[in-house]
Design goal:
The longest helix has 20 residues. Helix 1 crosses helix 9 and helix 2 runs parallel beside helix 3. The protein has one domain: Vaccinia Virus protein VP39 (Rossmann fold). The radius of gyration is 18 Å and the shape is globular. Strand 5, helix 6 and strand 6 form a beta-alpha-beta unit. Strands 1, 2, 3, 4, 5, 6, 7 and 8 form an 8-stranded mixed beta sheet that branches. 43% of the residues lie in helices and 23% in strands. The chain is an alpha/beta fold and 242 residues long. One of its GO terms (biological process) is methylation. Pfam families: Methyltransf_25. Keywords: Methyltransferase, Transferase, Ubiquinone. This is Ubiquinone/menaquinone biosynthesis methyltransferase. InterPro entries: Methyltransf_25, SAM-dependent_MTases_sf.
């Protein structure tokens, strides 16, 4: 299994993003949450730090604390943002956030903890009036193409629709303030650089690398073929008692 993960991170190392997204997503979430320019923001599971610039722009007098459990992602983010005194970068588990934060931003990673479980864990890390913004794989249509269903049954069998996401939010005693579907441009911000990396590594010299490349090609192909059926839903939520 180590050989597989070595191949996986060879593919993903130094990509600009570790998931779909664009600055407009951050701007929408901040506006929806009513986050102040002086906000203390946590970028949970920040990957290589693709959203830090947008988060800083959203809170120009605030501070961004970005963390990820993988040191090489933090090293990459450090190269881009390490000289900014309003950014703190550290290796750490998003389950261990302490705060207080006015906004916890989590792009495409909360499902590792579980929506309900993660939101409960983060409740004490939120300042009064604080909010969580997270993007989550989501079914957009009742008809689910078999190819897409097969992909997600392996990758994320707990994937649900917008109502199901909201139910998990409410189970954590939060309320949903607003939702937004990530755009095709947000997805291509992730997949286009990945396509180039796949092409560069296409002669991969191990079975594990060929497996990783095949999985990445399939993931992008399925989304491009069935993007109307599924994608990411960005939700802004707050605890009921805040």
């Amino acid at each position: 299994m180590t050989a597989y993960w070595d191949a996986f991170f060879t593919l993903h190392r130094d990509l600009p993003r570790e998931g779909p997204g664009e600055p407009a997503d951050v701007a929408w979430a901040v506006a929806t949450a009513g986050t102040a320019p002086t906000a203390r923001i946590c970028d949970a599971a920040c990957g290589p730090g693709a959203d830090i610039t947008a988060l800083r722009a959203a809170a120009p007098q605030g501070h961004v604390t970005a963390l990820d459990k993988y040191p090489h992602f933090i090293d990459q983010a450090q190269r881009a943002h390490g000289t900014d005194p309003a950014v703190t970068l550290r290796t750490g588990d998003m389950a261990d956030i302490t705060g207080p934060f006015d906004l916890i931003w989590c792009a495409g990673a909360l499902y590792f903890l579980g929506i309900t479980e993660g939101l409960k864990t983060w409740r004490d890390a939120l300042a009064p009036g604080g909010a969580v913004a997270f993007s989550e794989p989501c079914w957009f249509t009742e008809a689910r193409p078999q190819e897409a269903a097969d992909l997600w049954s392996g990758d994320y069998p707990a994937m649900t629709d917008a109502k199901g996401i909201d139910a998990r939010v409410r189970a954590a005693r939060y309320r949903t303030i607003g939702t937004r579907k990530l755009s095709s441009a947000a997805w291509e911000n992730y997949y286009a650089p990945m396509d180039a990396r796949i092409a560069a590594l296409s002669s991969g010299d191990t079975p594990e690398m060929q497996q990783v490349l095949a999985e990445a090609r399939r993931e992008a192909q399925v989304w491009r073929a069935h993007r109307k059926s599924f994608g990411y839903l960005l939700s802004v939520v707050q605890p009921d008692d805040l």
